[in-house]
């Protein structure tokens, strides 16, 4: 009798320990259970070796119609909460989602493997408050987004609601991919297509590389900048092809240590620094290098643009453009300190933007406008330290000659087409 009681007691004790161990395994470091942090049992089941989360196993449907937001967010929460290397797998298929907020900090390094296509919902009522963008990554270190898949913003369905050409303070449509306070990141190989607004926007980021990416939207699509950045440092954009309805790349205020190499741009508005001076207390831009790029049939080439009625002082300096090929580009080289898009701003005012130490070196090819070089600087704050070396861009038309339009610019020119020397 005593033996049976002892045996029963042992079985009960073992069962209790098994239950306690199971709960402990799925509790996080703070003692929270799976449902407290978003790790549903389905996410645990979807995880492969090394923390890999396949969104189909979490309930996503790649039929191009069913909303898969919940499955993708579940994968993010699980991956972000796991230590070591974690991977979110977007397999082949067309997965529709609404706005998604990928917030960190994460415990480990997260990779989003994009093999299929994500499609952004066109129900604009979903995009509000903290979810104003389609995909926003916040406060995350050690991020990789890679693959051969596509982020399709499905912009054609909402571009007609963009009023920014008429309204200075227009309602901004959702950006496709926003990196907000992201450090040590790589975006590689993917395609971004038909954004509702900007395709990629970086804010307060450090050590980000965009490599081998394709960005595409029609030339007439409104405000579909390829890559915009602001208040960011040590950003590299390498071997990337961009064709949109706005700037291929725009380097905004507060950008420092920017490297743009091997980019093909067109259609679009070119590769720009700015616009600068629209908002109060913007930070300086410095150390921007654009090298070994090709621009085709764009409305501008390499451009620096600032508002004449800037609200506070800002300086753009140490800007280098080297080995750039222009093919049928309007305004191949342009500094515009009287920038006023669509004439919806004040066209005259007290300039607060300083542009200095700018080098244009080995810029060649053809211009679709007679003005191959345009340096329109402020009479109150002239552009200084502008160097032009081996600039040889010629007007492709026959109805006029190649020329430069220069005002209030202090230029040193060597080896340039004589019409472009700006001296």
From TrEMBL:
Q: Which GO terms describe its biological process?
A: carbohydrate metabolic process; cell wall organization
For this protein, the record's InterPro entries field holds: Glyco_hydro_28 (IPR000743), PbH1 (IPR006626), Pectin_lyas_fold (IPR012334), Pectin_lyase_fold/virulence (IPR011050)
Q: Does the keyword Mitochondrion apply?
A: no
Name the catalytic site residues. Answer: 269
Q: Where in the cell is it found?
A: Secreted, Cell wall
Give the catalysed reaction(s), semicolon-separated. Answer: [(1->4)-alpha-D-galacturonosyl](n) + H2O = alpha-D-galacturonate + [(1->4)-alpha-D-galacturonosyl](n-1)
Where is the secretion signal located? Answer: 1-24
This entry's Enzyme Commission designation comes to 3.2.1.67
Question: Which GO molecular function annotations are given, in alphabetical order?
Answer: galacturan 1,4-alpha-galacturonidase activity; polygalacturonase activity
Superkingdom, natural source: Eukaryota
Listed A to Z, the keywords are: Cell wall, Cell wall biogenesis/degradation, Glycosidase, Hydrolase, Secreted, Signal
Query: Family per UniProt?
Result: Belongs to the glycosyl hydrolase 28 family.
The record's function comment reads: May function in depolymerizing pectin during pollen development, germination, and tube growth. Acts as an exo-polygalacturonase.
What is the protein's name according to its record? Exopolygalacturonase
């Amino acid at each position: 009798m005593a033996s049976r009681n002892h045996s029963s007691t042992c079985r009960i004790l073992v069962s209790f320990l098994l239950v306690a161990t199971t709960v402990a395994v799925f509790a996080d470091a703070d003692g929270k259970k799976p449902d407290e942090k978003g790790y549903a049992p389905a996410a645990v089941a979807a995880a492969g070796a090394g923390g890999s989360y396949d969104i189909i196993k979490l309930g996503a449907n790649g039929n191009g119609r069913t909303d898969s937001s919940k499955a993708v967010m579940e994968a993010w929460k699980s991956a972000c909460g796991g230590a070591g290397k974690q991977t979110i797998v977007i397999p082949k298929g067309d997965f529709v989602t609404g706005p998604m907020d990928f917030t960190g900090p994460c415990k480990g390094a997260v990779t989003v493997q994009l093999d299929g296509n994500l499609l952004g919902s066109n129900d604009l009522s979903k995009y509000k408050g903290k979810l104003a963008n389609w995909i926003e990554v916040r406060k995350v270190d050690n991020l990789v987004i890679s693959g051969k898949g596509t982020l399709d913003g499905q912009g054609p369905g909402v571009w007609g609601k963009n009023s920014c050409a008429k309204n200075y303070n227009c309602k901004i449509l959702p950006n496709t991919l926003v990196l907000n306070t992201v450090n040590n990141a790589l975006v590689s190989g993917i395609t971004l297509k038909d954004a509702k607004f900007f395709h990629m926007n970086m804010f307060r980021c450090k050590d980000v590389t965009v490599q081998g990416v394709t960005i595409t939207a029609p030339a007439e699509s409104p405000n579909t900048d390829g890559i915009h950045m602001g208040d960011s440092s040590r950003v590299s954009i390498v071997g990337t092809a961009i064709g949109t309805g706005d700037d291929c790349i725009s380097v905004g205020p507060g950008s420092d240590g920017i490297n743009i190499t091997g980019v093909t741009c067109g259609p679009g508005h070119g590769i720009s620094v700015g616009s600068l001076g629209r908002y109060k207390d913007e930070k300086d831009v410095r150390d921007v290098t654009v090298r070994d790029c090709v621009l085709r049939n764009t409305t501008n080439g390499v451009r620096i643009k600032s508002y004449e009625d800037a609200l506070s002082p800002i300086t753009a300096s140490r800007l280098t453009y080297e080995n750039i090929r222009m093919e049928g580009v309007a305004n191949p080289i342009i500094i515009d300190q009287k920038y006023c898009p669509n004439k919806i701003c004040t066209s005259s005012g007290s300039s607060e933007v300083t542009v200095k130490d700018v080098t244009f070196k080995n810029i060649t090819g053809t211009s679709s406008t007679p003005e191959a070089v345009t340096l329109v600087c402020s009479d109150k704050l002239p552009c200084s330290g502008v160097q032009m070396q081996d600039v040889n861009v010629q007007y492709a038309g026959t109805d006029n000659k190649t020329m430069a339009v220069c005002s209030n610019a202090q230029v040193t020119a060597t080896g340039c087409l004589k019409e472009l020397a700006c001296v």
